[in-house]
Design goal:
The structure is a single chain. The protein is an alpha/beta fold. Among the domains are: 246-330; 346-496 and 691-703, Rossmann fold, CATH 3.40.50; 507-686, Rossmann fold, CATH 3.40.50. It has 30 helices and 13 strands. The strands form two sheets. Strands 3-2-1-4-5-6-7 form a seven-stranded parallel sheet, with helices on one face. Helix 5 runs antiparallel to helix 6 (92-105), helix 11 packs parallel to helix 13 and helix 15 (246-254) packs antiparallel against helix 16.
């Protein structure tokens, strides 16, 4: 040890005082002076190590802390800081060992528990992270940050109820904590309590939050619940906080398309607003901003544009071009592999979707493809971009050559697809799942195909073909797609009956008079446009007594908009809507089938038909009335009825729609005959191999062509 000058203890005290005062550089110099005279001074080694760690020099910090512990091995704060230094240089195992040692030495030392929790969280060990965050929350009972961290870990484990309790505890400590409010709101959404989530977000907005992201999250929730004005205000507030927040600009464009319409509203008005907003956004993404755009692409999509009874090729092509431009700026094109080796192996088809579970896209399309495509010619790989799984997911896995899930970033999926080298990328839908739309914006395979999971053209330039069905398309169907239209035979799908158990409805508890004709109206709110409200009024006028059975949406405000609109329409005709219109709670599948089996008519939605619901109605023996639409999306139930030879239930105008519904309600003998004929003919709808065989032929043929298409 070097000889100490008379003022040596004072130098250490001065350095520590400077450290406490936040004069870090001067403090570090003081500690260096002390160590020059006393290289084994514990305090100087320890505190200089902490300063170096905080300033980013973790390697030297670790060296100093190790020297400090050689002097005083029992100093648990230094053990903890050595763990932090090891973590900073990527020595995770050493870091964990030091954190655990510090905790053993001082079980109530919260910083060590917190550091270990953060390390385990980064490693993806959520169970251990939650245990350590729980220890921090116990040791810091009034600390909102500790409670927020614990809630986050529990939420990631799917323990949403416990997570919410943590956030509510944090809010009991500090009701103005915007992090706890936002976390609580997000958790309430996952718990299916959007109304409660809205209340929390409104509190945040009232505070004028500094974080643009919180405003954006609030706007996203407001929009999904039909709160248009609140959504726009939240997105605009996010942009006030951060004018370059591309996600909020994108969301503001999509927010021009309502989910449902109120009395007197014309969808054409909102269509024009969306078109103008798309043009403004395209211009905003100039050369300097384009590289940022990939973050926003398809986070929200113009899904509700499809419910306008208009040709969408022009608008969606402009939208698709913007998506492609922004995604390509972030992920430059790489030419797919050549077809030179195609003759030596099966066609490799990768189906990319978020819906490999009991959901309409799986039920109507993908289940049949996965089970029935000819494996002698076609190798099926499944890329599951969603997070929901169930028994059907297990079935999908068992039938595929490979099943990939769990990736979270577009770049990860792009790399996985390039490693797989598919001949064909097949998207059952483009327009609902965000990740699918991001990927579909790019050229990742020689042949890229979309299908009718979202029944409208994608508008994306990298999608070559669109799969539809012979019985769904109007004579001029090809003109409604940017892609090349491929029409598969019949209904274009291999469909299995659902065969749910029967459940007897409790009409009294539902507020339904079983003696009156009951007309099932099972569409989601956005399928009901104002221009068709008169149809319900005219049916009610003709029948005088009947009940239209609607179902409350997961966003109840949307259902209320439809109800309010119908109240106005009925009032204008001198009728009380409350006598005719009933909104029922959402039903389980057995309960829904039990209800349909005992009602008189299913009224298919006009302009945007329901394929799965029509198939379920037929399976339940419920007569269907449908209006043949201008576009494929308005002809799905028509195709089902025509396939059975029940063309008389397919009408071409409002008058015939009303007359057919009224006859089915009033003429019991006719209704019974319709039920009998439907039952006799329904088998033709199921297990139809012709569409899958045609799909297989198409995939083999398309994969054998040169790339790019048309060359």
């Amino acid at each position: 040890m070097n000889a100490q000058t008379p003022d040596f203890p004072q130098r250490l005290d001065d350095a520590m005082a400077l450290h406490r005062a936040g004069q870090i550089a001067a403090a570090a110099a003081g500690y260096e002076d002390v160590l020059a005279q006393d290289p084994a001074n514990f305090d100087a080694l320890h505190f200089l190590g902490v300063i170096l760690l905080q300033s980013g020099n973790a390697e030297r910090a670790a060296q100093l802390l190790e020297r400090a512990l050689a002097v005083h091995p029992e100093a648990f704060p230094a053990v903890h800081q050595l763990g932090n230094a090891c973590a900073a240089v990527g020595r995770s195992d050493d870091a964990a060992s030091h954190f655990l040692r510090a905790i053993t030495m001082a079980p109530d030392y919260a910083p060590a528990h917190e550091s270990l929790a953060n390390l385990r969280h980064r490693q993806g060990n959520l169970d251990d992270a939650a245990l350590e965050f729980a220890a921090v929350a116990r040791l810091r009972p009034g600390n909102a940050g500790a409670l927020n961290n614990l809630g986050t870990a529990l939420g990631q484990l799917g323990r949403y109820g416990e997570a919410l309790a943590c956030y509510e505890h944090a809010l009991a400590v500090d009701r103005q904590d915007p992090t706890a409010l936002a976390n609580a709101a997000s958790t309430l959404i996952r718990l299916g309590r959007p109304a409660d989530a809205i209340a929390y977000f409104l509190e945040i907005i009232a505070q004028g939050p500094e974080q643009a992201q919180v405003c954006y999250q609030a706007g996203f929730l407001f929009y999904s619940q039909g709160m248009r004005a609140e959504a726009r205000s939240a997105f605009e507030l996010a942009l006030q906080r951060d004018p370059e927040y591309v996600e909020a600009r994108w969301a503001l464009m999509i927010a021009e398309l309502p989910l449902a319409y109120g009395p007197g509203e014309d969808p054409a008005t909102f269509r024009r607003r969306f078109s103008a907003a798309l043009e403004r956004l395209d211009e905003w993404f100039d050369a300097g901003r384009t590289p940022l755009g990939y973050r926003a692409v398809a986070n929200q999509q113009p899904f509700y544009l499809a419910f306008h009874d208009e040709d969408n090729v022009g608008l969606l092509s402009r939208y698709g071009d913007l998506c492609a431009r922004l995604m390509s700026a972030r992920y430059p094109a790489v030419s797919p592999p050549s077809r030179s080796s195609f003759a030596n192996r099966r066609v490799r088809v990768a189906i990319v979707a978020a819906y490999f579970y009991d959901q309409s896209v799986w039920t109507a399309q993908v289940r049949g493809w996965v089970a029935q495509l000819d494996r002698r010619r076609i190798e099926v790989h499944l890329l599951h971009t969603g997070g929901v799984t169930d028994v059907q997911t297990s079935i999908a896995k068992s039938q595929a050559a490979s099943f990939l899930s769990g990736l979270t970033e577009p770049g990860q999926w792009i790399d996985a697809i390039r490693r797989l080298k598919p001949d064909v990328l097949l998207y059952p839908e483009i327009g609902m799942d965000t990740m699918c739309a991001k990927l579909a914006s790019l050229r990742l395979a020689p042949v890229q195909v979309a299908s009718i999971g979202h029944p409208v053209t994608t508008g994306f330039p990298a999608i070559d073909y669109y799969l539809s069905a012979e019985l769904f398309e109007p004579p001029d169907g090809a003109a409604h797609y940017r892609e090349q239209l491929i029409v598969l035979p019949n209904l274009g799908c291999y469909y299995e009956p659902l065969n749910p158990p029967d459940s007897e409805p409790k009409w009294d508890s539902l507020g339904i008079d079983a003696a009156l004709p009951r007309l099932v109206c099972a569409g989601t709110p956005y399928k009901y446009l104002p221009e068709h409200d008169h149809v319900f009024v005219e049916i009610a006028q003709r029948l005088e007594r009947c009940q239209f059975l609607f179902f409350t949406d997961m966003a109840p405000r949307l259902s209320r908009q439809i109800e309010e609109r119908l109240v106005v329409a009925f009032r204008q005709a001198g009728l009380d809507a409350a006598r005719f219109v009933k909104f029922l709670p959402r039903q389980s599948r057995p309960a829904f089938f039990g209800l349909m089996r005992r009602c008189e008519v299913y009224l298919d939605t006009i302009g945007f038909s329901g394929l799965n619901t029509a198939m379920q109605a037929v399976e339940a023996g419920l007569p269907v009335v449908t209006w043949d639409g201008r576009f494929m999306r308005g002809r799905l139930a028509s195709g089902v009825l025509k396939r059975m030879g029940m063309d008389e239930l397919v009408v071409v105008d409002a008058g015939a729609y009303v007359a057919t519904a009224v006859r089915l309600c009033q003429d019991a003998a006719y209704r019974s005959d319709v039920r009998r004929r439907m039952s006799a003919q329904s088998d033709i709808l199921y297990r139809d191999l012709a569409p899958v065989q045609a799909l297989g032929d198409f995939l083999v043929s398309a994969a054998g062509k040169a790339w790019p298409p048309g060359s």
